[in-house]
Amino acid sequence: MIEVSNVDFSYRGNRKLFDALNLQFEMGRVYGLLGRNGAGKTSLIQLILGMNRPNLGACKIDGFNTKSRSAQILSNIFFQPEDVYIPRISGKKYISLYACFYKNFSMEKFDRLKDEMGIITDRNLATLSMGEKKKFFIGFGLATNSRYIFLDEPTNGLDIPSKSVFRKAVASSISDKQVVVISTHQVADVETLIDSLVVLEGGRIFFNDYVSEITDNYVVKTLDSVDESDLIIYHEQYPTGYVAVMPGRPGKDGKVLDLEMVFKTIIYGKQRFNKEVVNER
User: Fold this and answer.
1) Which pLDDT belongs to residue 277?
2) Is 101 left (phi over 0), alpha (psi -120 to 50) or beta?
């Protein structure tokens, strides 16, 4: 388990980013970590991994404080930052040098992902396109079989077919003995992978719930017109009409997930997007 306990954090000379932040990531779940620009998604990941240190509070993985950056902790973690350091070596050489740091790395799994994702390993990594680099490191990361996998903007640079392959690769490669945290602005790219949603806003956890709670209790509908009905929690106008988020009827409305609309509803909705809204309908 990952535990963030009463964490205060600010960069030197800047306003406080987090104030008494508390959060847990549980085993066997794929988390979507969302927030507006500057909300602190990457900073939170770096705090969890011990790359930054909190002013107050602690971040722990399996009970160990991550500020120690011990080999025992790091050997169970894979982190792909948005901007990956690219050494001027081939993919094959990279694997030969770095796979040993991950005690559960599987070359068999990497070879499978290589075929599925079209990963290039026989060329200098620095000469590859952004999308080709991303595919290599995603494949490598999944092949580490780390208990904790953090992917920061993993689909940036991927074309549409590659995004589909990415989703299939992640879905087929993770187990209930892992935690996967995906931080992204490209919400639609990962909505079929995520089963838990965490939203940062204003230095705190603004929303934290299972996706199933959302799909069980809310529905996204296309409407010809809207009124001031309390049933509409949030809506947007398009040339073809309106898209609205409304309380659903369990067992009657089909389960519809539009994670981008869900995120906008959480941030901009006229009332908090939570179970109290469902109970009021």
Assistant:
1) 36
2) alpha
